């Protein structure tokens, strides 16, 4: 079993994503929201309050990676992430799995599995430690990148 490095903060995850982007020569833009009044999951924060009731300053980031496939990552302050690959959304991934997930996608390990009945496709992204994330591909047609990965 491969152990993924622990990424205790949103900033450490952004740094790890930046390293993957550099390795695979991908352009990267980052938008950061800091404070309870700015992060997406804390809409009930009191007005003009930047910290949570426990005094923590939540930090969220949205990362867009260039090239094909179209990939974006939303890192939440609670330690989880949502990754979208060519329109396929993977919800509730542990923050520690984001860099190996991206490495799998860019390294050519991700594949699309089709089925005849009921008709549909799933995007499968295997990680090095026998964990595989699978999500249904929405819509009836595949993008060119997804089509190139059908098994």
Tags for this entry?
alpha+beta, 151 residues, three-stranded antiparallel beta sheet, 3 helices, 8 strands, five-stranded antiparallel beta sheet
Description:
With 151 residues, the protein is an alpha+beta fold. It has three helices and eight strands, in the order αβββββαβββα. It has helices at 10-23, 98-106, 144-147, and strands at residues 28-34, 59-65, 71-75, 80-85, 88-94, 111-115, 120-126, 132-136. The strands form two sheets. A five-stranded antiparallel beta sheet has the order 1-2-3-4-5, covered by helices on one side. Strands 6-7-8 form a three-stranded antiparallel beta sheet. A hairpin with a 4-residue loop joins β6 (111-115) and β7. α1 runs parallel beside α2. The longest helix is centred in the N-terminal third of the chain and has 14 residues, at 10-23. The radius of gyration is 17 Å and the shape is globular. It starts with 9 loop residues before the first helix and ends with a helix.
């Amino acid at each position: 079993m491969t152990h993924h490095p622990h990424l205790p903060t949103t900033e450490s995850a952004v740094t790890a994503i930046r390293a993957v982007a550099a390795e695979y020569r991908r352009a990267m833009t980052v938008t950061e929201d800091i404070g309870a009044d700015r992060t997406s999951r804390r809409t009930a924060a009191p007005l003009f309050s930047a910290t949570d009731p426990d005094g923590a300053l939540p930090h969220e980031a949205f990362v867009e990676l260039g090239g094909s496939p179209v990939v974006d990552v939303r890192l939440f302050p609670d330690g989880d992430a949502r990754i979208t690959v060519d329109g396929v959304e993977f919800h509730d991934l542990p923050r520690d799995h984001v860099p190996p997930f991206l490495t799998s996608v860019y390294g050519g390990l991700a594949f699309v599995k089709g089925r005849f009945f009921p008709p549909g496709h799933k995007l499968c992204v295997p990680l090095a430690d026998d964990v595989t994330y699978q999500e249904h591909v929405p819509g009836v047609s595949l993008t060119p990148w997804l089509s190139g990965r059908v098994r």
